[in-house]
Specification:
homodimer; 105 residues; alpha+beta; 3-stranded antiparallel beta sheet; 67% helix; DNA-binding
DNA sequence: ACTTACCGTAAGTGACCACTTACGCACCTG
DNA sequence: CAGGTGCGTAAGTGGTCACTTACGGTAAGT
């Protein structure tokens, strides 16, 4: 999936990963996250935007504040991507075991 | 795990992801990869170094050339990382269903 | 209506990273 | 030993991105 790439990029950044991990543990407002992290509130907003586009979080208005919570979709996409290569690796390994290494090209 | 972060960073780059995907499909030499990709051979070498440090590929000398093949370790680390949050999400969702949303703070 | 709180966006800047060319080293062939 | 091939590393550079400050917009409080 194309989403898997976005998820990889999104979780590649350490700060963004921290944001995601906190949101995954419990829904948070932007201010809460910024207060717990060593970056400014706008930075958190930008990170949340990337995470949202990757399908890793979703947001909803709660009065004055805006609550972000984890969205399984993004994780599922990345899992599917990984499983693809995981199975490929197993198949390749199985083939390598069944057949002795033969010279090629 | 700490390795999961390295895997996320490694697979975050598009070119590096292409390198990994080709190696995952079949063992390749550096020259083969460089020939199939729109970057120079040193670039491929640098990408392979990162992938190797992330536990995604392993290399072995084959005469003059150097063969890279997929290493399941890195994928497994990332899978474990994802599963952690996956289960966390399921637990949170289950709690949210069982209990109506109550005000807090 | 005025003030305060919370948030997203715009613009600008510094640092990191992917890429290139140049070079040195190991292995095979004649 | 000399020539050729395959690879990794060093050094340098351009582009991208994470971060900051400044600003506008919406919702609650008095």
């Amino acid at each position: 999936m194309a989403r898997a790439a976005a998820v990889l990029v999104a979780l590649g950044d350490p700060t963004r990963r921290q944001v995601f991990e906190r949101v995954a543990g419990r829904p948070h407002s932007v201010g809460e996250l910024a207060e717990a992290l060593p970056v400014s509130r706008p930075a958190v907003s930008q990170h949340l935007k990337v995470l949202k586009q990757a399908g890793l979080v979703s947001d909803m208005a709660a009065g004055n504040r805006r609550i972000y919570r984890m969205e399984p979709r993004g994780l599922q996409d990345l899992r599917a991507y990984l499983d693809h290569f995981w199975n490929q690796a197993l198949a390749a390994f199985k083939t390598a075991v069944e057949q002795p290494p033969k010279e090629e090209g």
